[in-house]
Structure formats: structure tokens, C-alpha cells
Amino acid sequence: MRSVADYLAEALCSLGVTRSFGIIGKSVCPVVLKMVDYGIEFIPGRHEASSGFEAAGYALKSGKLGVAIGTSGPGGTNLLTAAAHAKANHLPVLFLTGHQSIQELGIPQCQDSSSYLADLAEMFRPATLYSKLVERGDHFGTLVTHALSLAFGSVRGPVHLCLPFDVQTEKLASCSIHLPQPEPLVSLGNHDHAIQAILNAERPLIIAGKGINRAGAHSELLQLAETCQIPVVTSPGGKGAIVWDHPLYHGPIGVGGCAHGDRLLNHSDLYVVLGSRLSDMTICNLKPENHPRTLLQFDSDPTFVGKILSSPHTIPVTGDLRANLQCLLRKLPSSPAPLPANSSAQPTPYAEPLPQLTDLSLASVLQTMSSLLPYDHTLFVDDGSHGFHAVKWYNVQKPGSFIFDAYFACMGNAIGMAIGAKAASPNETIVCITGDGCFMMLGAEIHTSVCRGLPVIFIVVNNMQLDMALKGMQKTTGRTDGTLYEVPMDVAMFAESLGATGIRCETAEQFAAGLRQALDSRQTTVIELITDRSEIPPTAHRVLHMDELASSQREERLQ
């Protein structure tokens, strides 16, 4: 006879899980301790949201299941943001939360997770692919099998199980758990239509989204672009799908994008959309009258396929992006067409001049940063104006090395993601760029990195304000309420108080020296960048929409 916690720990080991993330409490002790007994390291966080992001970073970098654990009540509710983030990014994470014993239901208890107060099973339902309270031990095998099959299904994502204390410790003679054996799904029926659309197009354009990076379909993207000589642009989250200086790359589009890329977007008759939902952050500068005649959209999640643009002809290709592209490419000519000339004397077509500022320019730092990092690195980019600066200015040299969520866009996610990724890939250089606003939310998580000996490099842009909100509000309303920090944060001092190395930089030279020091030290390092507060983030397209909204509201008041 073994406990439910035994069977769960054994199943996770069989899936190759080596680490779990969370904050311990009475209601999750049985399952946490049993995982440790089975050799799964438990990495205690400083906030459950960060632990959830760490599990997501681990899943992204390892390709395995991430596991995030929170105790009943507020421990579980603190995980909700991370669950929604994992769902938006199609990351397979198992969220485990505690619950008082089933035998004690109806008795008021501290950190209640039942329907009498904070019903975690119900709360997690819209933020995950599956959420369930496990009420009986003999139901556990069926429920965890179903949850894991969905986490690794055709549309990957997070799942949640709420485990009562007495169910975790319940003894079972046997427990049948069938581990997922995912097979890539393809949409063979539409491949011929897709090829015909590509061959017939006069001005085709590939829009590479986050799905390319998630599927690891970088070589397939290149083969398609080079074989058919199709220019490539990237969504904000798709940055890094192709290297920055490839002759067919024409830059990012949308918020953080370049004018050249947006012009292509407005003058193409076919969009080949690879792993993008075409959210407002991507097509905010696309004029309605310029929607393409044909839309060829590849996406594992069919929810928004063909529903965003008014194109008269839409060809959906659902299922695994990489597998679909491989099938498609087998039907195309095998030898690529000659590439257009490109050399160091001929700048990339989307190059734009750097801003001229009195103090340190974040744009200039980002444009040179990739040359200072080793090729084998991954950059996790947090949400805020610094994120869109990175979309515009960072030169990606290694495909798939730029991780940015411009869709759910929760501040502070990159801090935990970087730590989880480092736990999954200890020999790779992991860097996180975040802002002072994000850092004040979840910056204490660097203490987790310090305690576990994970030498992540954190770069914190300190402009002493919520920059994206401030610049947008200033332009549209003339006000900046709630966007300024009256007492600026001393990031380097805070980092040192948590055991990390803190470096403060006010010039580009200081930053280059600080980054070299961080790379050589093999310790958790926080580099504080004091940047020019007046630098305008490349988020003007979104601001234009805010202008229209403000104008509309003014007209309504006048009527």
C-alpha cells in the first residue's frame, strides 16, 4: 500500500521532472516531502507567483513538465497570475495546491480553499486547460492522467489539481497513471491550398510569432523563407525567430516595431502567419483597408485563426507548427533561391538611427549588448517600456534566445522565468532584463537565485517611474498620476542585501565592464542601469490608439 503522494512523485520522476518550485505549507507537506524523497529538488520561492514563473521557465527550457506548488488559500491564489501566463504561452505546467482534508469540509479553517471561501478549483478553471479538486484517492489516477494528457496535448498549457491533505496521504493498493506520449498533429488537408497560395502571391510576407520559438521551428522558417524568397517580419513575442542580420529579415512589427516592417505589413497580398494570434500588439499599425487578400495562418490553437482580419480568403493550418512546416516543405522545391546580397557595408533594411540623449540611452545599450554576451545565452525580457525597447533594438544572434511575452504581459514574469530556466539549463548563460517597476513587485526572488547558487544575470532599468504608463498618459491626458516613484529605489544596494552582487551603471562603458564582471563571476549579479528618464519608448502605435480613444471620449462629452 502506497500513498497518493507516492504515486504522484513516481509519475513525475517518470516524466523526467527534476525540480519543483513553490512555497511550502501544512496542506502541501505530504506531496512536497514525497517528491524530495524521490529525488525531485524542491526550490522554495519568495512569492508563489514567482515560483509559478520559475516552473514555466523550467518547462520552456527543458521541454519537460514544470511543477509549481502553493499551499491552500492565499498560496493558491498567488499562483493564479503565473497559471494564466503559462496558458497564454502554451507552457506545460502542473499547478498543485493544497486543501483542507475532505473529512473537515464545512468547518471554518485558516487558509480555506473550499467553496466556502476561496474555491481554488473554480478559480483556476479559466486560467488553465483543466482544474479539478481531487476528492477521493481512488479517483486520483484517472484525474492526473487526464490533466497530464491535456498539458502535453495539441494545445499545450497548464493544468491544476487541488489536493486535500487526507487525499495526499490516503493509501492505495494500486494507482494506474498513464503518462502522455505526445505525437505531433498535422493538418494535411490544407497543405496543397497553402502551397498554391504561396506560389500565386505577388507580395507575400511571413509574420513569425512566438510559436516559432516555442516549437523550435527556426530552421523550417528559414527554409520556407529562402526557398520561396519571402520577406520575414516578427511579432513582439516572435522576436528571435530569425537572426537580426539575415537578408530576408525586415524587422519587428507592431508595438516596438520598425516603420519599414509596418510598411511591408500594409502592402502585402498574402500573410503567412506562423504561430501568432495577431493580437493588437502585433497589428496595431495595420490599416483595415490593407488587410491581405489571403491569410495563411499556422497555429496549434485554433481559437483566433482567421477571426482577426477581414481577409476574403483564409487557409487555417492547425496542429504542431514544426511538423506542419516540415510536411509543407517536403512538397516545395528543395533547393533555395539565391539570397539577396547583404554585407556589413549594407545595413539591415529596418535599421533606424539611435536616439540622441544627454544621459544613458537604453536603446544604445541594447543594440550593443548581444555582442557582449556569449552565443549560447537566453535573454528573458520583462514587460514594460524596456521590453519594447528590446524588441526594437536588441540584435538577436542565436535563434530562439529572446523570450518576451507581449500578450498576457504580466510585470515581473521574466525574473522567475530566468531562474527556472537556469535551473533547467545550468551551463547556459541566462540573462533577464527588467524594469524598476517589475523589480519592486517580484525582485526579492533573486534571493532564491542566490540561495540555490544559480548565477543568473539581472539587468534592471531604473528610470524611477512606470515609464510606459507615464509616457502614454502624458501624451493622451497630459497627466502622470500614479506613475512616478517619489523615493527612487537603490537597486544595487537592495541586491547586495539579498546576497547578490550589485553593480550600478550610469554610462555605456560602466555597463560593458559590469556585464563582463557578471559573466566572469559565476554569481547571481544585478546590474542597475540609470537611464535617461526622457527616452521615448517605441510604443507610439499603441499611444495612437489611445489618442483616438481620448478624442472619441471628448466628442461624446461635447454631444
Give the total of domains. 3
Going by CATH, the homologous superfamily of the largest domain would be Thiamin diphosphate (ThDP)-binding fold, Pyr/PP domains
- What strand order characterises the main sheet? 3-2-4-5-7-6
Strand content: 15-25%
Biggest pleated-sheet summary: 6 strands, parallel
CATH topology of the largest domain: Rossmann fold
- Label the CATH architecture of the largest domain: 3-Layer(aba) Sandwich
Envelope shape: globular
On the 0-100 scale, what is the average pLDDT? 92
- In which range does the helix fraction lie? 25-40%
CATH class of the largest domain: Alpha Beta
Number of strands: 20
Characterise the protein shown here.
Helix content is 38%, strand content 17%. The protein is α/β, with parallel strands linked by helices and 559 residues long. The model is unreliable at 543-559 (pLDDT under 50).
Mind sketching the topology for me?
Blueprint lengths: L1 E2 H11 L4 E4 L6 H9 L3 E4 L3 H15 L3 E5 L3 H4 L2 H9 L4 E7 L20 H5 L5 E4 L6 H12 L7 E6 H4 L2 E2 L18 H10 L3 E5 L1 H6 L2 H11 L3 E3 L14 E4 L6 H7 L4 E5 L5 H4 L10 E6 L13 E6 L2 H10 L31 H11 L4 E5 L3 H9 L8 E3 L8 H12 L4 E7 H7 L3 H6 L5 E6 L4 H11 L13 H7 L3 E5 L2 H14 L3 E6 L9 H19 L1
Parallel strand pairs: 2-3, 2-4, 4-5, 5-7, 6-7, 9-10, 9-12, 10-11, 12-13, 13-14, 15-16, 15-17, 17-18, 18-20, 19-20
Antiparallel strand pairs: 1-8
Helix pairs in contact: 1-2, 3-5, 3-17, 11-14, 15-16, 15-22, 20-23
